Amino acid sequence: MIEIEQAEAQLSELDLLASMFPGENELIVNDQLALAELKDCVEKKTMEGRSSKVYFTINMHLDVSQEAMVMFSLACILPFQYPEVLPEITVRLRKLNWKRILIRHREDVTFDSTGDEMEKLKKFSTFEEKVFSVNGARGNHMDFGELYQFLNAKGCGNVFQMLFGVEGQ
């Protein structure tokens, strides 16, 4: 696929997403300059002048139960060679109160796209919050030893050292 075809595919996918998410603030193109450059490149049939990647966010309100609604936000930055090169996708299920989140470690694994192979790669069967017993006079610090044992049991003991910079025991 040549670069112009890739740009046309990106533009048509953005149009498709706009029709799938027509509500206000459902689909937000975060970088309008990149979108304008993309449209310009497709019209002129040349990739010269394209400096920014298309960056968009999809926001959805999900009804989890009758009482609760969850804000789901998916941010995506399309590489210049998309759809040949897949984008990195960030999903935010709720607004986090941290100033920024850093990627400390990344593992890229190739697999044959079968369900069995995917299940073997999963370390956790469900997404849930774990609470470990608290220690200390004020009772506000969890037991990191229990956290390390939990991670070790799931085959993720090396993550403890990556996150906290100390060897677990």
Structure explained in plain terms:
Helix content is 33%, strand content 18%. With 169 residues, the chain is an alpha+beta fold. It has 2 domains: 3-92, Roll (Ubiquitin Conjugating Enzyme); 115-164, no CATH class. The strands form 2 sheets. A 4-stranded antiparallel β-sheet has the order 1-2-3-4. Strands 5-6 form a two-stranded antiparallel sheet. Strand 2 and strand 3 (69-77) form a beta hairpin. Helix 1 (3-20) crosses helix 2 and helix 4 (144-153) crosses helix 5 (157-164). The radius of gyration is 21 Å and the shape is elongated.
Brief rundown of the structure:
The chain is α+β, with helices and mostly antiparallel strands and 169 residues long.
Write the layout of secondary structure elements.
Blueprint: H1 3-20, E1 27-29, H2 32-44, E2 55-63, E3 69-77, E4 88-92, H3 115-121, E5 134-135, E6 141-142, H4 144-153, H5 157-164
Antiparallel strand pairs: 1-2, 2-3, 3-4, 5-6
Largest sheet: 4 strands, antiparallel
Determine the CATH superfamily of the largest domain: Ubiquitin Conjugating Enzyme
Percent helix among the residues? 25-40%
CATH architectural category of the largest domain: Roll
CATH class call of the largest domain: Alpha Beta
What fold name stands as the CATH topology of the largest domain? Ubiquitin Conjugating Enzyme
Beta strands, count: 6
> What integer is the average pLDDT?
78
Q: Note the beta-strand portion.
A: 15-25%
Shape: elongated
Q: With helices defined by DSSP (H or I, 4 residues minimum), what is the helix count?
A: 5
Would you list the SSEs in sequence order as H and E?
A: HEHEEEHEEHH
The tally of structural domains comes to 2
Structural class determined from secondary elements: alpha+beta
Whole-angstrom Rg: 21 Å
Query: Biggest sheet, strands in spatial order?
Result: 1-2-3-4
Low-confidence stretches: none
- N-to-C span: 52 Å
